[in-house]
Amino acid sequence: MELNLKKDLVFFDLETTGPNVTRDRIIEIAAIKLFQDGNEEKKRWLVNPGMPIPPSSTAIHGISDKDVKDAPKFEAIAKEIFEFFKDCDLGGYNHIKFDIPLLMEEFARLEINFDLKNKRLLDAQKIFFFMEPRTLSAAYRFYCDKDLENAHSAMADTEATLEVLKAQIKKYIGVVPPGMENAPISENLDDVHKLAVGNMVDLAGRIVLNKEGEKVFNFGKHKGKKVSEIFSKEPSYYDWMMRGDFAADTKKHLTEIKLSLSKMI
């Protein structure tokens, strides 16, 4: 089926140094321009981000520092990229939340106005999520090929969830999920646990483990900083969190960290 185009349409995807829209940088752009006359043009730019590419990101897209060391920086090719995208609608997968904002950040640093005002934004992920709901009923149908009767009955949902988990492990056994690095899905429930909790310390994800296995804040002004260091330098931050609207589980972990500091004195 051909798309009914009212203007040229560019579908594109970015590979980046990481997931942060404001701090991370583009290292690859792949784009396909669909012209109204039915023709298409493909473009790919490799970009030197001017910063190290973390191994965790390389594990996902396969691009390392050595692959981009001789590539141009974004400012050197920004005009070419802008012209390719200019006056076109934009398409992609989850690009409204990530790819477009990150591309706009790169242009903004060069004071290039990448205006979305007259662009249509087409996101395949949005259609996928609307048409294939991420619900237990949908998972039960996909993995178990059954319709969930009495949905939202506690026992029916519990029984279905158990079946879904067993079916997932059977379907994906031996597969390494993206970003998990040498952690294939298996019948070993330790592996399933790691997949579920990742690097979270508390269930709300306010505290996580960094690459060194240290507990760091995952929100607010101290994001990425070691909890123990902040509590040592700024004891009032602990008091603020304990008075704040944080989950009991989070406060429990905070107290454990605070008590461990007292024992070290």
Distance between the termini: 70 Å
Strand % is: 5-15%
Strand order of the largest sheet: 3-2-1-4-5
Major sheet? 5 strands, mixed
What structural class do the secondary elements suggest?
alpha/beta
Overall pLDDT score: 90
Q: How many extended strands?
A: 7
Poorly predicted runs are none
N-to-C series of helices and strands: EEEHHHEHEHHHHEEHHH
Shape: globular
Helix content: 40-55%
* Tally of helical segments: 11
The radius of gyration over CA amounts to 23 Å
Describe the model.
Helix content is 42%, strand content 14%. The protein has helices spanning 55-61, 65-68, 74-85, 99-109, 124-131, 136-144, 154-172, 189-197, 227-233, 235-243, 248-264, and strands spanning 9-16, 26-34, 40-46, 89-92, 121-123, 207-209, 215-217. It is of the alpha/beta class and 265 residues long. Helix 6 crosses helix 7 (154-172), helix 9 (227-233) packs across helix 10 (235-243) and helix 9 (227-233) packs across helix 11 (248-264). The N and C termini lie far apart (70 Å). It is globular, with a radius of gyration of 23 Å. The protein has a five-stranded mixed beta sheet with strand order 3-2-1-4-5. The protein has a two-stranded antiparallel ribbon with strand order 6-7. The mean pLDDT is 90.
